Amino acid sequence: MKPSFSLNAILIAAGAILLTGCGDAETTINELPPIVVEMPVNPGTGGGGNNDFLIKSDGRLAVSALDSNQVSVFDLDDNRILDDFSMVHKGNRVEASADYRFAVIINRDNDYVGFIDGALWREDHVEHLHDYEKAPEISNFALFGSSPTHVDSYKGLMAIFNDGDADAGIPSSVTVLSDMDIASGNDDVATLMFNVSMHGVAKPRGEYLIASVRRDDAESTSTNTRLPDQVGVFHLHNDEYEQEQLFDVLCPNLHGAAQNDEFVAFGCSDGVLVVHEHGDDFEATKLINIDALGSARIGSLYGHERSENMFGIASNRATGESFLLAVNPKEMEMKQVDWQPVDGAAAIGFAFSYDAEHFVILDNQGFVTVLDAHEHDGHMHWDFRERVDVAEADIADLPDGATFTMTMSQNHGYVYVSDPIAQHILKLNLESLAVSEEIELAYVPASITWLGIAKAHDH
Fold first, then answer.
1. Considering the entire predicted model, what is its pTM?
2. Contacts of 343 (CB under 8 A, 6+ apart)
3. Which fold has domain 150-337?
4. What are the tens digits of pLDDT across the range 297-355?
């Protein structure tokens, strides 16, 4: 059994028509003429030079509205709106696809994942790289897995973990797809089907998938039995993943995962489960929590393929304490990082810069904190650099259900921060730490994501 797909434009259009007149959003799609890009010709070669087909662009930005089904796409070169789209459901979260071409529209409550083509992308034509730029458009391709929740991308592949529904007897599943799968409407994308439901996570690594595994409640070491406590390695055969390995190292209350070039890490109540890849072989070890954490557990992890360090966020719900941790899976080290928050601030967003030179933290008071990486005695260290206040209004005026959100440019040192009080998006330069541009919105934003042509990483 696989998650079902919809490639029928008529059904999507009909769903949009039914939303007209609901009162909170008018169903309109503003048609724009295609954006024509004149490709330069190298007179010395008659065309075909390596840079002849490349586009210089800051990218695009997808923004979802808090109280409607609207998703907007902006051009970041001039901050103009390219189009507004009315999605099937309200309350959408937006993420980027694996290669940042598509806005991924996630609606967990309605078992729906849709896509908007940001229409700025790159193709490898072997002889040269070829960039394309068109007007954004909604895709007819959609996924209907049960309770889509965590979305994780790595090196051209995106894994969507569908938690399933225990009450309805629907097990968890994972869908793995590329931007090309979305563009072509591939209805045979790679899938992994479980026998039980869980709140899990999966990390794609080429032809492998490293994913959480939930055992029987009587055997599980998780105090919350919806959370798994094991990790498995799954190998792709045709369009389905099959389990090849199940690690004996346990990870009670597993939640959160990250990866870099060598390692995949999973957050556990007693530490971090570290999976080390050796070609086609994988081994697992446990990095035990440092004493400073007490009874706090790591529930979120963030990684970058160019960074040997990952960041973990540990919290204790009973006391409200939280900790930021630098986790080095190669050295099997865990260190607490002082990000110097203001009183009453709680971190709500985390991200590496595109080049892994900075780690950025967004808190619920509207501050952006930047940590910088530096090497000392052959080890990477992270230090507090500065905190920038991007909130212009009183935090007490924050609309119900709203929060600050951010997204990182993948080709420049910029972070974009949405302010739901002022109803705008600010562009912050990570080098100067100055706000350089502003995008005004006509609604309260729910989430934002950067789209475009990412800068290639050197290894």
1. 0.88
2. none
3. Methylamine Dehydrogenase; Chain H (2.130.10)
4. 999 999 999 999 999 999 998 888 999 999 999 999 999 999 999 988 999 999 999 99
